[in-house]
Design a protein that fits this description.
2 domains, two-stranded parallel ribbon, alpha+beta, endopeptidase fold (from Nostoc punctiforme), 10 helices, six-stranded antiparallel beta sheet
């Protein structure tokens, strides 16, 4: 491992051990507790893996308690973002490739992400870690190869940084419609640090990488009196995962399963033709004939109340 990375990681570990109390460690463990998946997501991970490109932003609908808090604060499905750096053999810059392999001894054809994670810091993660999750790709449109390399270099420089839980809490406070404490008071969102920070969170790190090549995500637009416009960089610490989803400068790629290569062929999907209705994967039922007759007899200006759900057993 490169000496500068090793020193940074060791220093962050020492700082973390010194600053984290037993209560802090308990809080991180509690926030990272995952809920069980309620069913399979409609995402073709195999196809996503084969088509993802360097500098694509991967959005994840997390299942941890922290994810549920982020959902409530941001009013969005997406709770985590990671940036794809490609396979080691695809990284043309030898120095960058060696730094990646020094930090994470991956196979040359292994698809890799860089992401800051609560309790782990900024790390390299194999893409396959998210094969069972709800995913979406946000692809920067028209990004040049030179700028791709600059962005990749920038996120690699952040490897080993600790996760900034204080920034996450400040962002939650800032998102509230009201607060007893003024938003700017002792808030990390308004602190300015030159160079690489000592801590970061997922969307802030990715946003800072794109800002190094002046690629827009959700810039502030000021209209001038002469009819022109001026763009200003948004505070990178204010970004959340949904901003990549709503940005007009990123293409949104979905890989549904089952796939519809031709959207006009939706009628050829393998639909059940027995009339079975499902609430979840585990809870399916066959509506009674009386309920179906009741639906047909109801006038349009009244609301139909469905019959009680009964368990359906497939034959």
């Amino acid at each position: 491992m490169g000496s500068h990375l090793r020193v940074r990681i060791e220093n962050n570990k020492k700082e973390g051990m010194a600053s984290r109390s037993m209560l802090g460690n308990w809080l991180i463990s509690w926030l990272n507790k995952e809920n069980h998946a309620t069913g399979r997501y409609l995402c073709d991970f195999k196809r996503l893996s084969s088509e993802i490109r360097a500098c694509d932003v991967l959005l994840v609908e997390g299942r941890t308690r922290a994810s549920e808090i982020i959902k409530a604060v941001t009013k969005s499905t997406w709770t985590h973002s990671a940036i794809y750096i490609g396979r080691p053999k695809d990284i043309k810059n030898t120095e960058l490739r060696n730094r990646v392999l020094d930090f994470y001894p991956a196979k040359l054809n292994e698809r890799l992400l860089i992401e800051p994670l609560l309790g782990e810091g900024t790390i390299i993660t194999p893409l396959k870690k998210y094969r069972h999750e709800h995913l979406r790709i946000c692809r920067p449109s028209g990004l040049s190869l030179v700028d791709m390399q600059k962005i990749t270099s920038h996120v690699i420089d952040h490897l080993g940084l600790d996760y900034n839980i204080r920034q996450l809490l400040d962002l939650a406070r800032f998102s509230l419609p009201f607060s007893i404490i003024p938003r700017r008071w002792r808030s990390t969102l308004y602190e300015h640090q030159a160079g690489i920070p000592s801590k970061t969170v997922c969307s802030s790190m990715i946003a800072s990488a794109f800002s190094t090549v002046q690629y827009p995500i959700r810039p502030i637009v000021h209209h001038k009196k002469d009819g022109g416009v001026r763009l200003y960089n948004r505070n990178n610490r204010m970004y959340v995962p949904r901003d990549f989803d709503t940005s007009p400068y990123f293409d949104i790629l979905k890989y549904p399963f089952p796939a519809l290569d031709d959207p006009t062929l939706y009628r050829q999907l393998p639909w059940d033709d027995n009339g079975v209705i499902c609430n979840t994967e585990q809870e399916c039922f066959m509506p009674s004939a009386a309920a179906l007759n009741e639906v047909q007899a109801q006038p349009l200006n009244t609301e139909w109340v469905p019959a009680p759900i009964t368990e359906f057993t497939s034959r």
